[in-house]
Design goal:
The protein has 12 helices and 9 strands. It is of the alpha/beta class. The termini are far apart. Strand 7 and strand 8 form a beta hairpin. The chain folds into 2 domains: 169 residues, 3-Layer(aba) Sandwich (Rossmann fold), CATH 3.40.50.1970; 149 residues, Up-down Bundle (Dehydroquinate synthase-like, alpha domain). Helices cover 51% and strands 13% of the residues. A 6-stranded parallel β-sheet has the order 1-9-6-4-2-3, with helices on both faces. A 3-stranded mixed β-sheet has the order 5-8-7.
């Protein structure tokens, strides 16, 4: 008997170099007139908002900025952003940044029609009402948060990191422009890229994977193997940035449907307990988790090795599979991950 599969994605995806120029008209198409832009100090300092905001002004849309988002965004910051949204009379949200800013923006959009603190909605299917319209614009290539149905938040006082997982929290539109990642420094480029690789590998070997998700995640692995080194060491290379952003998106589309496994089961609690950066901790744990998981997906690990450029000709299946771990360790070393 065949196993039933399902693929779901509710977010409209727009992907093109220069696509950020559409943000004003897209906001108008959602019938928005005053938008809260949720971001972080790094994005503000990079000048990216100066690229985005003129398009909003040209479309006649007022904006208000909330830039108090930190890595591993907190419940408190999201609740504060919700207060600003309500007090300012906004009707939509744009998230600009990495996964932290995008998860915060998604949470704000969800809480407008679901009253109370974000803390009350941690868990699965806790949201009862639809979010207000939201657009997510990633400036890193790693999390896939621009299309997923989960927002991960932290409660520092309780050393807790959990997600709000619900169909209602997925963004309305994901606007991906690889040019916005050109100014990302080498360290965050590496960490976010290895985060995307973790997503792709965990989704590919998941017991919930199937041909549709495999096509996405295997291509994502291949793209990361091809482009991450260049993106880290020559950040102005638009081809590498394009390849990495596409890989991040495809990995996100995969794990959005398969969910993740051991690496995130370990690094989620670590993030809550020690407030460590998510991408970097995933990168450190990934090869160790792969060694543990390898016997359960040995054929797929051999395919991963090939996708990362390893020559497995003449090797036994076990040897070929182990090459996948070697390839990940080498990629991490080549991109400067601390040992």
């Amino acid at each position: 008997m065949s196993v039933p599969h399902e693929f779901y994605l509710s977010t409209r995806i727009i992907y093109q170099q220069g696509s950020v120029d559409q943000v004003g008209e897209l906001s108008k198409s959602l019938q928005l007139s005053k938008i809260q832009v949720v971001t972080d100090p790094g994005v503000v300092g990079s000048g990216i908002l100066e690229v985005i905001l003129p398009h909003m002004e040209a479309a006649g849309i007022e904006t208000i900025i909330f830039d108090d988002i930190v890595p591993n965004p907190t419940i408190a910051s999201v609740d504060q952003a919700v207060k600003q949204f309500r007090a300012s009379g906004c009707d939509g949200v744009i998230g600009v940044g990495g996964g932290s800013a995008l998860d915060a923006a998604k949470s704000v959009a969800a809480l407008i029609n679901n009253p109370g603190s974000a803390f009350e909605y941690l868990g699965v299917d806790t949201l009862k009402n639809d979010s207000v319209p939201s657009i997510c614009i990633p400036t890193t290539a790693g999390t896939g948060a621009e299309i997923t149905d989960v927002a991960v938040l932290s409660v520092p006082d309780e050393k807790l990191k959990m997600g709000i997982r619900s169909a209602q929290i997925a963004p309305t539109i994901a606007l991906l422009d690889p040019a916005l990642t050109l100014t990302l420094p080498a360290g965050p480029t590496r960490d976010s890229g290895l985060d995307a690789l973790t997503h792709a590998i965990e989704s590919y070997i998941s017991v919930n994977s199937w041909q549709a998700t495999d096509a996405l995640t295997l291509k994502a692995i291949e793209l990361i193997g091809t482009h991450l080194r260049t993106a880290v060491h020559n950040g102005s290379n638009i081809e590498a940035r394009d390849g990495m952003l596409l890989a991040s998106l495809m990995a996100g589309m995969g794990f959005h449907n398969t969910k993740l496994c051991l690496v995130h089961a370990i690094t989620g609690p670590l993030g809550g307990m020690y407030n460590v950066p998510h991408g970097g901790s995933n990168a450190i744990v990934l090869p160790h988790a792969m060694k543990f998981l390898l016997p359960g997906a040995i054929e797929k690990f051999a395919v991963i090795a090939q996708a990362l450029g390893e020559n497995i000709s003449g090797l036994s299946l076990r040897e070929a599979a182990e090459k996948a771990v070697f390839a990940v360790e080498t990629l991490a070393k080549d991109t400067g991950l601390p040992p």
